[in-house]
UniProtKB/TrEMBL annotation, chain A:
SUPFAM superfamilies: MetI-like (SSF161098). It comes from the Bacteria. The chain crosses the membrane at residues 31-52, 97-122, 134-156, 168-188, 209-234, 267-288. InterPro entries: BP-dep_ABC_trans_perm, MetI-like, MetI-like_sf. It is found in: Cell membrane. Its main location: membrane. Residues 1-24 are annotated as: Disordered. It comes from Micromonospora parva. This is Carbohydrate ABC transporter permease. The keyword Transmembrane helix applies. Keywords: Cell membrane, Membrane, Transmembrane, Transmembrane helix, Transport.
Length: 303, 355
C-alpha cells in the first residue's frame, strides 16, 4: 500500500522540469504523510487484528508469553462455542445475538415507518411553527442519551418495560426518529414536489401520489437512513446494560461485555463473539457505502 | 373549453403567511390570460388554487358553470404544466403521455389515438420511446405540454413553464404555445414573472402584487396606462420615469423645468407624479427648440437602441430611449424634451392612477 502510493507520487506527471528543491519537498512531505498514516492505521487496526487473531487461537496460545503473532495453531472452536452449547442446545450468547437482531431490526423499521412520512410532511406542507418543531425534534439529540438512563430505568420498572425487548425497541426508536426525520427531510427536499402535483391532477390522492411517485424515488435515501438507524441500535450499549438483566432479553453488546469477568475469562470466546457481532454492521455499511457518503455530504451541494 | 371565475380569493397558510389577500379574476372562454408579478405576489398560489392543489381560505372558484371549491384536482378537468416539467422519470415519453388517460380508464385504442395526435401536434415522433433523462429541457417541456393536451381539458394552467429554458429556446416555445393556444381555442392561464413573456403571449394580463390584483388589461393598456405606481415601475425595461409634478397655469411642471401636457380631470391639492415612458422623452442638442438644459449621466449601448440616463435638475435622473444613431457622450451637455402625448398621472398618497 505504502509502496504503491510512493510510486504513484514519483512517477506522476511533470517529473523533470520542477525545481529540485520543491520536488524534494514534495517527496519529503509524502514520506511524512505515509509514515503518519501508517502509524495511525496500526494504532486503529491493531485491536481489530488482535481480536481476529485471538478468535482463532487455541486457549494456550491466547495466554502465551511472549505473545504469538504468527506461529499459532488455527482453530474455529471459539466460533462454535459462540453458537453451540456443550451438550448441544443454544448458548446464551447466541440468544443475545437473536435479541440484538430483533431489537435493532424492529426499532429501525419503526423509526423508518414513523420518520419517513413525517419528513415528507415537514418537507411538503406549511406547518405551523415548522422551524421550531424541527428544532425541537433535533434538540432531543443534543443531550447525551446516558443522561436519561436513570429516569428511564425508573419509569420502565413502573410500567413493566424493564427487562423487556419492547422497552429497548421503544427507546431506540425514540432516539432514531429525530435522526430519521432530519436525514429523510433532506432527501425529500431533493424530490421536486411537482411530481405529486402532476399525479394529483392525473387523478390520484395526495397519499397515492406520495406512495406511487415520491416514495420510489426516496428508496436510496431510506436505505441509507435505515442503515444509520440500524447501526445505532445494533451498537447501543448503555441502555441495553441498564434496562435488561436476563439473558433471554439482553442484547449482544452488554452480553459480550458480561463474558469478561468472573474467575477466568474465555478470551477466545469474547473475541469470536465480538467478530460475529461486528460483521453484520460491516456488511450493511459496505452495501450502502455510496448512500452513506451521500447521507454524510447531504446539503453540501445546493441545486 | 370553459371560462374561469375567481371571486374574492383569499389564501392564508397554517404558518400565518398570507399568500393571496384578495383576488378577483374573470377569465374568458378561449382566452390566454397571463398572471404577472414579482415572486411572492400570489400568482402561483392563485393558479394552484384554481388547479385544486391548494385549498383557498375564502372565496369561490368556478370553471365553466361548475363551482369547483370542493372538487379534487382530478375532478376539475384541467391540465397543468409545471416549471420542472414533472415528467415521470421512469416512464418513456409515450407512457408519460398516456398516463393521465390510463388513469381516467379510457380504452386502449382511444389512448393510442390521442397520444399519436398530441405527439404529432408537438412534433414528438422521434422522442416517443425515450425517457425524460434522455431529453433536453426544451424537449421535456414539449412532452409536458403534450401531456397536458391529451387530456382535452376544459382549461390549461401554466406555471412558469419556460423559466428553466435558455433564452433562444424560450422564444421558440413562446411562439409555439401561442400558436397552439390559438389553434385549440384553449382557455389558458399562464403564470410568469417575465414581462416580455406576458406582453407577447397574453390576450389580457393581470398584474399581481402582495396578494392583490393591481391591474387587469390588454398588454397595450397595461403598457400605456399602468393602473398604479407599482405597475408603472414594474412594466417596461427600463420602466416609466416617475417625475413629481405640480399644476400651474394649466400645465404640469416638474422640478428642473420640464413641462408636460396634463390629462383632463386632474384632482386639485394632491401631490402628483407623472409617469413618462423612456421613449416619450428625447435627448437633443443643447438649446434645441422646446428642450430644457440637461446632462448625460451615463449611457447604456444596447445595440438596437441607446438608453441615456439624464440629469435634468429634478429629484431623480430620467431614462431616455433613443435610436442608436443619436449619440452623445457621458457627461455631455444636452437638451431634454418631452415628445409623447399626455402622461399617466398618479396620486402619491394612494399610489393610484388619477388621470
Amino acid at each position: 500500500m505504502a509502496v504503491s502510493v510512493d510510486e504513484a507520487v514519483s512517477t506522476g506527471p511533470a517529473p523533470d522540469h520542477g525545481p529540485p528543491a520543491r520536488r524534494l519537498g514534495g517527496r519529503g512531505r509524502s514520506v511524512v504523510e505515509i509514515a503518519l498514516l501508517t502509524v495511525l492505521a496500526v494504532v486503529m487496526l491493531f485491536p481489530v487484528l488482535w481480536m481476529l487473531e485471538t478468535s482463532i487461537k487455541e486457549n494456550r496460545d491466547v495466554y502465551a508469553i511472549p505473545a504469538k503473532f504468527f506461529d499459532f495453531a488455527v482453530t474455529l472452536q471459539h466460533y462454535k462455542d459462540v453458537f453451540v452449547a456443550q451438550g448441544d442446545g443454544r448458548t446464551p450468547v447466541s440468544v443475545n445475538f437473536l435479541n440484538s437482531v430483533v431489537v435493532a431490526g424492529a426499532s429501525t423499521v419503526l423509526a423508518t415507518v414513523l420518520g419517513v412520512p413525517a419528513a415528507w410532511a415537514y418537507s411538503r406542507f406549511a406547518v405551523k411553527a415548522k422551524k421550531d418543531q424541527l428544532f425541537f425534534i433535533l434538540s432531543t439529540r443534543f443531550m447525551p442519551p446516558v443522561v436519561v438512563v436513570i429516569p428511564i430505568f425508573l419509569m420502565y420498572r413502573q410500567i413493566g418495560l424493564y427487562d423487556n425487548k419492547l422497552g429497548l425497541i421503544l427507546i431506540y426508536t425514540a432516539f432514531n426518529v429525530p435522526f430519521t426525520i432530519w436525514m429523510m427531510k433532506g432527501f425529500v427536499d431533493e424530490v421536486p414536489a411537482e411530481y405529486e402535483d402532476a399525479a394529483m391532477l392525473d387523478g390520484y390522492t395526495r397519499l397515492q401520489a406520495f406512495w406511487r411517485y415520491t416514495l420510489p424515488l426516496l428508496v436510496p435515501g431510506i436505505a441509507a437512513t435505515a442503515v444509520f438507524a440500524l447501526i445505532f441500535s445494533w451498537n447501543e450499549f448503555v441502555f441495553a446494560t441498564f434496562l435488561t438483566s436476563s439473558d433471554s432479553v439482553r442484547t449482544a453488546p452488554p452480553a459480550i461485555a458480561g463474558l469478561i469477568g468472573g474467575t477466568t475469562t474465555d478470551w477466545g470466546l469474547v473475541a469470536a463473539a465480538s467478530v460475529v457481532f461486528a460483521l453484520p454492521v460491516l456488511v450493511f455499511a459496505y452495501l450502502v457505502r455510496k448512500h452513506l457518503i451521500a447521507g454524510v455530504t447531504l446539503g453540501a451541494v445546493r441545486r | 373549453m370553459a371560462g374561469i371565475e375567481v371571486t374574492a380569493l383569499h389564501k392564508r397558510y397554517p404558518d400565518g403567511t398570507v399568500a393571496v389577500e384578495h383576488v378577483d379574476l374573470s377569465i374568458g372562454h378561449g382566452e390566454l390570460f397571463v398572471m404577472l408579478g414579482p415572486s411572492g405576489c400570489g400568482k402561483t398560489t392563485t393558479l394552484r388554487a384554481i388547479a385544486g392543489l391548494e385549498r383557498q381560505t375564502a372565496g369561490d372558484i368556478r370553471i365553466g358553470d361548475t363551482l369547483v371549491n370542493d372538487l379534487r384536482p382530478a375532478e376539475r378537468d384541467i391540465a397543468m404544466v409545471f416549471q420542472f416539467y414533472a415528467l415521470y422519470p421512469h416512464l418513456r415519453t409515450r407512457d408519460n403521455l398516456a398516463f393521465p388517460l390510463r388513469a381516467e380508464g379510457l380504452p386502449k385504442q382511444e389512448v393510442n389515438a390521442r397520444v399519436e395526435e398530441a405527439a404529432r401536434l408537438m412534433r414528438l415522433g422521434p422522442l416517443l420511446n425515450r425517457r425524460p433523462r434522455q431529453l433536453s429541457g426544451g424537449e421535456q417541456q414539449r412532452v409536458a405540454l403534450a401531456r397536458a393536451l391529451v387530456r382535452r381539458p376544459r382549461a390549461f394552467l401554466m406555471d412558469e413553464p419556460l423559466t428553466n429554458l435558455d433564452a433562444e429556446l424560450r422564444a421558440d416555445m413562446r411562439t409555439e404555445i401561442k400558436h397552439l393556444q390559438g389553434e385549440l381555442g384553449a382557455t389558458m392561464v399562464y403564470v410568469t414573472h417575465d414581462q416580455v413573456e406576458a406582453m407577447s403571449l397574453g390576450h389580457r394580463i393581470a398584474i399581481l402584487n402582495k396578494g392583490r390584483v393591481e391591474q387587469i388589461g390588454t398588454p397595450l393598456e397595461v403598457y400605456d396606462r399602468p393602473a398604479s405606481l407599482f405597475c408603472a415601475a414594474f412594466i417596461g425595461s427600463p420602466p416609466m420615469n416617475l417625475i413629481e409634478v405640480e399644476i400651474a397655469d394649466g400645465r404640469l411642471h416638474a422640478q428642473g423645468g420640464l413641462v408636460l401636457t396634463p390629462p383632463s380631470g386632474l384632482p386639485r391639492d394632491r401631490r402628483l407624479v407623472a409617469g413618462v415612458r423612456p421613449e416619450a422623452l428625447e435627448v437633443t442638442a443643447p438649446g434645441a427648440e422646446g428642450s430644457i438644459p440637461a446632462r448625460v449621466v451615463s449611457v447604456e449601448w444596447l445595440g438596437d437602441e441607446i438608453i441615456y440616463v439624464v440629469d435634468h435638475g429634478g429629484q431623480r435622473d430620467v431614462r431616455v430611449r433613443m435610436p442608436p444613431t443619436v449619440r452623445f457622450a457621458a457627461d455631455a451637455k444636452v437638451g431634454l424634451r418631452h415628445t409623447g402625448g399626455t402622461p399617466a398621472v398618479y396620486d402619491v398618497s394612494t399610489e393610484e392612477l388619477v388621470a
